[in-house]
Amino acid sequence: MCAQFSRFFGGPVGDVPEYTQPQFAEVLEKIFSNGVFPDVDDELAVSENDPVSLSVVVATGEGWINGFWYQNTAALTKSLGAADPTNPRIDRIVLRLDTVTNFKISIEVLAGTPGAVPVAPTLTQDASTWETSLAQVLVGTGVTSIADAVITDEREFVVVHGLGEQSTIITTIASSATPTPVRASIKTLLEITALAAAAEFAAPTGTPINGDQLFISATDDGTARALTYNAIYNDPYSATLYATTTIGKTLLMHFMYSSARSKWELLSADEEA
């Protein structure tokens, strides 16, 4: 059976049609991808507090999740839980959409679990709650303050659907034991400028589609670093995933997403001469 729908109309005088908020959101979410609006105020950047404390500051900006809009008009301080005395943990600062209980978007702290090798907590993305990450925060063993050096930017930036297909989402970090390409769709570049530990590349964020491009550039801090990869990466062609960096030289890997195999497949890999 064929069904056709159209929205939104004021209707004839005396017979105004009514629409629900989910119906508005269903249409609006087709306009923008989820994330932070680029070039609006300070783009919801996460940074250390001043003076430093066991908290972070989220800057002004606007965001968009599943057809719903968010705005932060002043620097927002988010306190973190006390550090574990034995193991570090990774928290996330998230933009959270709640469509069932509180009916709002808000910035929240998603606390991680302490561990010898901590991992970032999993984002909730279901029919009632949808979280997108602004940053990871490494809370070291017994620390009482957070510095910019332990904050990893994870913002995804809004793209107008049907436009901007040639845009490149660029994330630059100094170092991470679990580097994560952010918003791996369209074209994405992750730059690591001073890798200071063995690294396992995590699965990219976002929902890629067939043919999306991903570039990873990595330079160590003067010591060769071992490299491993989440199972979503593979190298079925002639290029080979790098197993280590070469001291002081930048390596570059180019991947393309295959929806048939649900893999980021390595197309080329090269190293600075």
Describe what this molecule looks like in 3D.
It is built from 1 helix and 18 strands. By secondary structure, it is mostly beta strands. It folds into 2 domains: 126 residues, Triple-stranded beta-helix, CATH 2.60.520; 112 residues, Jelly Rolls, CATH 2.60.120. The strands form 5 sheets. It has a 6-stranded mixed sheet, with no helix packed on it. A hairpin with a 4-residue loop joins strand 17 and strand 18. The longest helix is centred in the first third of the chain and has 8 residues. It is globular, with a radius of gyration of 21 Å. The termini are far apart.
In brief:
With 273 residues, the protein is mostly beta strands. The protein contains 1 helix and 18 strands.
Question: Which residues sit in consecutive blocks of at least 5 with pLDDT less than 50?
Answer: none
Structural class: mainly beta
Distance between the termini: 63 Å
CATH architecture of the largest domain: Sandwich
Task: Give the count of helical stretches.
Answer: 1
How many beta-strand runs? 18
In one word, what is the shape? Answer: globular
Strand content: 35-45%
